[in-house]
Amino acid sequence: MALTARGLTRTFGRHTAVAHADVTLTPGTITGLVGPNGAGKTTLLLMLAGLLAPDSGSLRLDDQEVDSTQLRAVIGWMPDVFGTWDSLTATEILTTFGRLHGQAASAARLRAAELLDLVHLSAFADRPAHELSRGQKQRLGFARTLVNRPRVLLLDEPASGMDPRSRMELRDQLRAMADAGCAVLISSHILTELSEMVDDVVIMTAGRTRDSDRPTGHRWRVREAGQPATSARMMSFADEEAAARHLGELVAAGANVAEFCRVDTELEDAYLALDAERT
Ligand SMILES: Nc1ncnc2c1ncn2[C@@H]1O[C@H](COP(=O)(O)OP(=O)(O)OP(=O)(O)O)[C@@H](O)[C@H]1O
């Protein structure tokens, strides 16, 4: 299911948090949303999720104009901080959300168990939420996001607080969901991590969106045995084939190559090239 936003605008008092933002999320695609603090990312995500009314602009699902109720039925929204009812157990939280989405009690319980298994929290199923660590709460938050089998996923800094294994699992789960036809938008300040998982990027500065001009080439770090790490060379290649060819030539010429690895900094470079002011 594709979600298209055109000209979304939202002001708070005299401050325009989002100004004429355009976003297109397509099934099978993971899109990154990046921008400095105060750029309007969370405000934009809240409008896309149907949780904040835009002052103007349109929201369409597969070319049909939709209201906030229709949006909320198909969207999975994961805020950066998982606000929850601390005295409820992980199962109770997920079943409550399932019931709010109209699931029968037995279906909601089944879905809760399935999701706790997915985020490796089955052992915490009957523990109150206040006993969970920050990272475990984030994982429970991700499970909650999936309760209604969303077709569009909106995630605001989802990996904050998660340990490395949980981050990798989140990345794999998001890719699997995209492959299954979900459209995914993920906001993050960790650009190296984001560049490993996204297909497209939308950059926000001062409330405005623009597609990022990601460079088409990629960079590789090349070092010969015995060279200090600080004197490694950075080389650009159009694609993996070109890099592999060059490696073959280096080795054939007798170079003692100890390091030849791709460095995903192109998103960082594109971001830093912006005149992006923090607010
Ligand atoms: N409820 C609100 N009332 C007044 N101003 C708000 C409100 N929510 C957001 N703003 C303002 O709108 C602007 C955009 O905020 P937003 O939270 O969308 O930024 P962000 O890009 O998500 O920032 P960060 O990267 O720090 O999370 C900021 O200047 C913020 O102060």
TrEMBL record:
One of its GO terms (molecular function) is ATP hydrolysis activity. Keywords: ATP-binding, Nucleotide-binding, Transport. InterPro entries: AAA+_ATPase, ABC_transporter-like_ATP-bd, P-loop_NTPase. Gene3D superfamilies: P-loop containing nucleotide triphosphate hydrolases. This is ABC-2 type transport system ATP-binding protein. SUPFAM superfamilies: P-loop containing nucleoside triphosphate hydrolases. Belongs to the ABC transporter superfamily. Pfam families: ABC_tran. PANTHER family: ABC TRANSPORTER, ATP-BINDING PROTEIN.
